[in-house]
Amino acid sequence: MKILLIAPMTPRSDGAGAIPVLLDAQLSGLRERHEVTLVTGVGDEPGEVEAAESLRREGIDLRVADRRRPRAVGPRWRRRRRLAGAWARGRWPWRTIWFADPGVQAELDRLLASRRFDLIAVEDNSMSVFRLPQCIPRVLTEHEVRRPRPIEWHSARRPGHWPRWAFDELDWRRWRSFQCDAWRRFDLVQAFSERDAEAIAELAPEVAARVRVNPFGLAPPPAADPAREQAGTILFVGNFTHPPNRDAALWLTREILPAVRTRAKHARLLLVGSAPPAEVRALAGPNVEVVADAPSVLPHLEAASVVLAPVRSGGGMRMKVLHALASGKAVVTTRRGAAGYLDGGRTPPFTIAEDSAGIARATADLLADDRRRRELGRQAREFAIARHSPAAWAARLDAVYEEARRAHGG
After folding, report:
1. CATH topology of 2-218+390-409 equal to that of 226-388?
2. Of 193, 34, 201, which Cα lies nearest the Cα of 121?
3. In what order do the strands lie in the sheet with 35-42?
4. Residue range 340-352: average pLDDT?
5. Which among 271, 295, 355, 362 would be 20 to 30 A from 104, CA to CA?
6. pLDDT of 255-282, one tens digit each?
7. How crowded is residue 143: how many other Cβ atoms within 10 Å of its Cβ?
8. Element (H, E) at 405
C-alpha cells in the first residue's frame, strides 16, 4: 500500500514529549509493510532538523516544511503577525495555528499533483485542516480529545494573569467545534483509548460509527539495569507545558510523597521533564529533586525503584506509562493514567489506585518488596513488547487502513 503520512512533528525515538516518540514507532512499523511518504514540519525544538536528516539517510521519502523562527527581526515579526492574525480572524485553536504551517500545504500540493496514494493517514487534529483530495481514503488519528469544561476562574485571581487567562479560556472554547469539524472530514477516526472514543461519540454522535480504538506503540528501549536502581527513588516524568502533568507533579509532591514517607522513610522523588514552570521548580526540597530538560530520561529511569503516573485530568494515552513498562519498571498509576492499556482484554502488569492514600500505600509496598517489584517490571516489559511494539501496532493500523479503503470504495 502507498501511504501518505501527515504528522505535526518529525518522528524521533528520543524526542521530547509523546508525539515524536509514537510517530517513530508508527513509521518504523509501517515502513516494514508499506511504501510510506511522510510530510511534516521542523521547528525550533533541539534535534528536529537532525532527526529529519537522519530519516532521509535511512531512505525515508520525507517532505519537510520549515517552521523555525526566523533569525532576522523583520521576518520574525511578520511571522508573529501572521500567527496572531490567524488566531484573531479564525476559529482554530492556537495549537492548530502553530502546527498547520502554510509550508505543509505547499508540500502536500506539490506531492499530490505528481503522485498517487492508496491512503492518507493524518496524525493529530492539528493536521486535519489541510486540503486533501476527496478521492483518496483518509484516516485521522485523534491524539487527545479536548472536552468542554467550566471556566477556570481560579486562574484569574491576579490581575497580571488576566490577559493570558482570557486568551486561554477563549482558545479552549474553540476546541469543541474545531474537533467535531475535523472528525467529520475523515472516513475513519482512530482514538488511543476507549475513553477518548466515547468522548468523540458524545461530542459528535454522527461520527460514532466511524471511530476505532487503537492504542499506540513504542520502539522498545533497552531494559533498565537493576544494578543501577537507587533504593527508595520514585520517578515522575512529564512535559510540564501540559497542564495534567503540572497537576500530577503538585499532587505527587504535596500529598502522595508525604504519605509514602510515613511507610518508607527513605523515599525520595525525582520530577523529570521539559519546561517546568516556577510552581514545579518550587517543589524542589530535601526529598524532591526537579530535573529540567534532561538530555535523556534513561539514567533517571534506571535509578527509579518505582515509576508513578498520578494523572487525574486530560485525555489520550500516557507515553510515560508505556515507556516505564517497556523499560521493565514497576508502575503505579490512576485509571486515567492507564487509559489505552486496559482496552485489550489482558490485565496490564501495573498497579492502579485513585486517591493519595491508595497510591502511597501501593508505592510503599513496592519499595519494601524487591522481589515483587522486579517481577512486576519483568512482566511489564513483556506486556509492552507483545502489545505495543511497532510491529504489533502496525498490524492494528493495517486493519484500520484496510477498513477505511473498503468503506471509501463502497
Report:
1. yes
2. 34
3. 61-66, 35-42, 2-6, 119-123, 138-142, 188-191, 211-213
4. 78
5. 295
6. 999 999 999 999 999 999 888 888 999 9
7. 21
8. helix 390-409
Domain ranges of the chain: 2-218+390-409, 226-388
At residue 332, what is the residue type? Answer: V
Q: Which residues contact 354 (CB under 8 A, 6 or more apart)?
A: 334, 335
CA dist 167 and 229 (Å) reads: 44
pLDDT tens digits, one per residue of 54-106: 999 999 999 999 998 888 888 889 999 999 999 998 889 999 999 999 999 99
Q: What is the DSSP letter of 210?
A: G
Rounded Cα distance, 390 and 28, in Å: 6
Region of residue 309 (left: phi > 0; alpha: psi -120 to 50; beta: else) = beta
How far is residue 88's CA from residue 74's CA, in Å, rounded to a whole number? 21
Q: How many CB atoms lie within 10 A of CB 82?
A: 13
HSE-up of 308 (CA within 13 Å, CB side)? Answer: 36
Q: Which among 86, 189, 194 is positioned nearest to 141, based on CA atoms? A: 189
Structure confidence at residue 344 (pLDDT): 61
d(CA 150, CA 217): 33
Question: Which amino acid is present at 57?
Answer: R
Alpha carbons 133 and 246: distance in angstroms, whole number:
40
CA dist., res. 15 & res. 48, Å (int): 8
Residues with Cβ within 8 Å of 326's Cβ and at least 6 positions away in sequence, in order, are: 218, 220, 221, 380, 381, 384, 385, 388
In 3-state terms, what secondary structure has residue 187? coil
State how far the Cα of 272 lies from the Cα of 21, in Å rounded to an integer.
Answer: 17
How confident is the model at residue 410, as a pLDDT? 53
pLDDT in tens, 134-185: 999 999 999 999 988 888 877 666 777 788 889 989 999 999 999 999 999 9
H runs (alpha helix) in 149-218: 162-172, 175-184, 194-203
pLDDT for 293: 79
The 3-state DSSP class for residue 351 equals strand
Stretch (H or E) spanning 360: helix 356-367
CATH architecture, domain 2-218+390-409: 3-Layer(aba) Sandwich (3.40)
226-388 CATH pick, 3.40.718.10, 3.10.580.10, 3.40.250.10, 3.40.50.2000: 3.40.50.2000
